[in-house]
Amino acid sequence: MTLIEVVVALAILGGAAASLVVAHQRLRDQQARAARMAAACAAADHWLAAIREAGVPLPVGSDGVLPDADGLRWSTELVSADPMPPFEVEQLCVRIYPPGKSERALLELDWFQSTKAAAGAKGDGVGAKPQAASADEEAR
Questions:
Q1: Cα–Cα separations (whole angstroms), residue 84 to 46, 50, 63, 80, 87
Q2: What is this structure's pTM?
Q3: How many domains does the chain have?
Q4: How far is it, in rounded angstroms, from Cα 68 to Cα 70?
Q5: With CB atoms counted within 10 Å of each terminal CB, which end of the chain scores lower, N or C?
Q6: What are the per-10-residue average pLDDT scores of the chain (140 residues)?
Q7: Does residue 140 belong to any structural domain of this protein?
Q8: Quick check: 105 and 31 in contact, CB under 8 A?
Q9: Are the C-beta atoms of residues 95 and 75 closer than 8 Å to each other?
């Protein structure tokens, strides 16, 4: 082998090694993001299940910190101002954010709740006194 062949072979190997390092770093970044999203999903699921069991509606246009979730934050926004006939439910968008000041949500969930229960809601929806379940809620 000549010196030129050796240099070309080393350049090809260097390019392949650099590609592998970049691909490995991207894989690690994707795994870390997937782990954060899975943790956020589990925390949101636990929180929303507790709200559903308590029979309290989610507050509309509100935000807060998820309990026991390492600082994950939540916010709600009304998607549709008109109740969906014939069910008399409203649709909310629930967003889960990472701790800190990030404006990019980890999760966005659709949440449907009875407009009757929401009309009588007071407080932040967490730890509030349960409302009597309506026939619409029990049907769901």
A1: 26, 25, 24, 8, 6
A2: 0.65
A3: 1
A4: 6
A5: N
A6: 92 95 96 91 91 88 88 89 74 90 87 72 41 39
A7: no
A8: no
A9: yes
